[in-house]
Design goal:
Helices cover about 55% and strands about 10% of the residues. The chain has about 200 residues and is of the alpha/beta class.
């Protein structure tokens, strides 16, 4: 059973995904996979260097994220070219991981943590989607506290993603993470029981 997990920035996706793993879920993390596909020797890193030049590599052959960021920042066409290289590689790696787990355990509940799941149209690849939700005001407060952002910087990050209320409407399941950690844990426990029941048919 493949379930997508998403939310907004500072909504607590990693907290919820860790709770699901504690209960037996297999987790594939899009951010982690994104780091893996640009390691030295990976075809995606080679393609990035061919497209954007050797200056995006450190002397040891690792990706110079700062140099690459400087090239694509604010350049929509260049960012699209970068995504055209990276996104297929990330999705392929995630598919391979999920298929491996399904071969090992046909009853596995696999959680795919994808920050921009709706924005990139991947929701149709999953049997359902969990949205980790907190109101925008709490997103802003958490970003300012956690990252030291000003209100304007926090709002800019929040606006770069689909509105969290819209994600909540689209979700098959919602975990409201605006209360205590114990309340979130209780919601996750209930969701896990529901997923277990639906898996058994």
């Amino acid at each position: 059973m493949r379930i997508g997990l998403t939310g907004g920035i500072a909504c607590g996706k990693s907290t919820v995904s860790a709770m699901l793993v504690e209960r037996g879920a297999r987790l594939v993390d899009a951010d982690q996979v994104a780091r893996e596909v640009v390691l030295p020797g990976e075809p995606a890193l080679r393609a990035v260097a061919e497209r954007f030049g050797q200056a995006v590599l450190h002397e040891d052959g690792t990706l110079n994220r700062q140099a690459l960021g400087a090239i694509v920042f604010g350049q929509e066409d260049k960012r699209s070219e970068l995504e055209a290289i990276l996104h297929p590689a990330i999705r392929q790696r995630m598919r391979e991981q999920m298929e491996r787990w399904e071969r090992e355990d046909s009853d596995a509940i696999i959680i795919a943590d994808i920050p921009l799941l709706y924005e990139t149209g991947q929701q149709t690849s999953y049997e359902g989607v969990i949205v980790v939700y907190v109101p925008v005001e709490l997103q802003r407060a958490r970003l300012m506290s956690r990252n030291g952002f000003t209100a304007e910087e926090a709002d800019s990050r929040i606006r770069s993603q689909m509105n969290i209320e819209r994600k909540r409407e689209l979700a098959d399941w919602v975990i409201d993470n605006s209360g205590s950690i114990e309340q979130t844990r209780e919601l996750v426990a209930r969701l896990w029981d529901e997923l277990g029941r639906s898996r058994k048919g």
